[in-house]
Fold this protein.
Amino acid sequence: LVVLMPNIYSKKDAMSLIQKMSASIKNIKVNILNNEINSSASLGLAVYPDDTNDVQELLDIADRRMYEDKS
């Protein structure tokens, strides 16, 4: 899933938003056959043009950072 944030003007604001998104996702509980499942997400942030001007490279950077978030 790619989230575009056109009204975010700084990396600090973007980090604040993804931290809120992550916290919201972690609060979701799913009940499957009387078993409570906790949700989670790994998020990776890439900022145009701070990180790169190239769309594919932005996706690659965000993907790499997402995997770093998992560890």
Summary: The radius of gyration is 14 Å. The longest helix spans residues 11-26. The helical segments are 11-26, 55-70. The CA atoms of residues 30 and 39 lie 7 Å apart.
